[in-house]
């Protein structure tokens, strides 16, 4: 077929090829398919030829239902959607899906993997470049979908250091924030998740410009990702990644130990910030040593969760 698009060139091309094949098998013209899915026929042409805007999630669902694709098109859609992001962003997502360990410092908001749906909707809606409600729902669906990996058999180890600002800023109002903090407390009981809070009294640090993520891949290699309000940068050069690893280790070393961090999250959940008692740095070091001594072969009291063997250097 002279005008056929090579489905190996992109996920959008693969999606369009599948739509064309299913439409032909169903004996429908592009105009008939457009009528059944409530779009103009030229929209179907754009999808099949990989021209124009990418299909929305709603349209993918409609096409799937009309063509009897048994969720094939719906399952392909997140990969088509991902192609709307810059190359470095797509590559980071691909690395994240393969990572066996994820270490994150969150400067402003709860990490996406730990967000509730309501909290995520509020965070995503703050994007000044957001193009309407439909795009918001698409982004929300993609974010919630990425969380499924935390419950899978091949789930990664997740260690997150949360800046105190993450707990104090009531995004979406107090009801949304309370549910989000409850989610953090629940996640911290999982054996593969560790949380720490970096309190304000630690002052300045090397990662103040934005959030930081270190990914460990199955082959043992590592990549780093830094992100601000309107930028992101993927770092793959080993020597530079090593520098970011040192920065992250320093953040973990100066943050509250896990059990004390959970106490601070509980206090924030009750809105009792002034009642949160943060020990001095020397006292925190002493308490952290006591927790390690009492943990019994790598276990912390109360949580029933094994702490990863690698510990930050003092």
What tags apply to this protein structure?
six-stranded mixed sheet; disordered C terminus; 11% strand; alpha/beta; 48% helix; 314 residues; 13 helices
Could you outline the blueprint of secondary structure elements for this entry?
Elements: H1 11-25, H2 30-36, H3 41-49, H4 57-67, H5 72-82, H6 87-98, E1 101-106, H7 117-125, H8 132-147, E2 157-163, H9 164-168, H10 174-187, E3 193-198, E4 211-216, E5 222-227, E6 232-235, H11 238-254, H12 258-269, H13 281-294
Parallel strand pairs: 1-2, 2-3
Antiparallel strand pairs: 1-4, 4-5, 5-6
Structure description:
- Helices cover 48% and strands 11% of the residues.
- By secondary structure, it is an alpha/beta fold.
- It has a 6-stranded mixed sheet with strand order 3-2-1-4-5-6, with helices on both faces.
- The radius of gyration is 23 Å and the shape is elongated.
- The N and C termini lie far apart (65 Å).
């Amino acid at each position: 077929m002279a005008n056929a698009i090579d489905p190996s060139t992109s996920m959008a091309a693969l999606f369009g090829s599948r739509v064309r094949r299913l439409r032909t098998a169903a004996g429908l013209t592009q105009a008939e398919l457009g009528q059944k899915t409530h779009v103009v026929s030229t929209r179907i042409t754009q999808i099949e030829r990989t021209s124009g805007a990418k299909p929305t999630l709603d349209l993918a669902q409609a096409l799937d239902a009309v063509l009897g694709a048994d969720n094939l098109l719906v399952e392909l859609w997140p990969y088509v959607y991902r192609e709307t992001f810059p190359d470095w962003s797509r590559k980071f997502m691909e690395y994240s899906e393969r990572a066996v360990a994820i270490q994150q410092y969150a400067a402003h908001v709860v990490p996406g993997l730990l967000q509730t749906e309501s909290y995520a909707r509020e965070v995503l809606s703050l994007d000044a470049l957001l193009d309407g409600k439909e795009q918001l729902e698409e982004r929300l669906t993609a974010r919630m979908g990425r969380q499924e990996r935390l419950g899978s058999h091949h789930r990664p180890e997740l260690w997150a250091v949360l800046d105190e600002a993450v707990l104090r800023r009531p995004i979406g109002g107090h009801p949304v924030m309370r549910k989000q903090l409850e989610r953090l407390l629940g996640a911290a009981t999982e054996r593969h998740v560790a949380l720490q809070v970096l309190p304000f009294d630690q002052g300045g640090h090397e990662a103040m410009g934005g959030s930081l993520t270190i990914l460990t891949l199955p082959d043992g290699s590592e990549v780093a990702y830094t992100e601000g309000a309107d930028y992101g940068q993927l770092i793959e050069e080993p020597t530079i990644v090593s520098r970011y690893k040192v920065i992250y280790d320093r953040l973990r070393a100066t943050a509250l130990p896990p059990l004390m961090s959970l106490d601070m999250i509980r206090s924030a959940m009750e809105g009792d910030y002034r009642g949160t008692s943060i020990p001095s740095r020397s006292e925190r070091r002493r308490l952290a040593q006591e927790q390690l001594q009492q943990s019994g072969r790598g276990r912390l009291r109360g949580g029933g969760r094994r702490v990863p063997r690698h510990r930050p250097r003092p």
